[in-house]
Amino acid sequence: MIDDTDRSILKLLQEDAKMTIKEVAVRLNLTTTPIFERIKRLEREGHITGYRAVLNRKKLDLQLMVFCNVSLNGHHLELLEKFERDVQSLPEVVECYHIGGLYDYLLKVVVEDMEVYQNFVAKKLAALDHLGKVQSSFVMTEVKQTHGLPIRN
């Protein structure tokens, strides 16, 4: 179980994972030792699963973001597991969700342009076993993008 201090630590690290233990301690009006111990416990318990750099996709010439709905031609466990394993090998797919509703999966795909996306769908995605229907929604404007979770005290 985490308390309000743990939640405050998580909020601060979520805003800036490069924040030092000393900086966190100062912000929370605590000493560094308990902050260090709490962070290590939060990591050990799986509340913190890693630290990453957030990259600017446009600076990396990845101009096109697409949400791709995918239906499979079957729904038995082995087929779903195989699709999920296969999608792991597609670097263009940056997120994948098994969803309920009209489609089975929602993929977030990031590529350079429409030509690269068309090639991705035609040669990579279509090559996956039991692929049924694919429906693409192209992002025109990113209105809100956050990697943070809504942590409440």
What does this structure look like?
This protein is α+β, with helices and mostly antiparallel strands and about 150 residues long. About 35% of the residues lie in helices and about 20% in strands. It has helices at about 5-15, 20-30, 30-45, 75-90, 115-125, and strands spanning about 65-70, 95-100, 105-110, 130-140. It has a four-stranded antiparallel sheet. Helix 2 (about 20-30) crosses helix 3.
Q: What is the count of β-strands?
A: 4
Strand order within the widest sheet? 2-3-1-4
Overall body shape: elongated
- Average the pLDDT over all residues and give the rounded result: 95
Largest sheet: 4 strands, antiparallel
- H/E series: HHHEHEEHE
Low-confidence segments, given as residue ranges, are none
Helix content range: 25-40%
| Strand residue percentage | 15-25%
Terminal Cα span: 13 Å
Secondary structure category: alpha+beta
Name the assembly state: single chain
Total helical elements: 5
Rg is 20 Å
Features:
single chain; 153 residues; alpha+beta; four-stranded antiparallel beta sheet; 4 strands
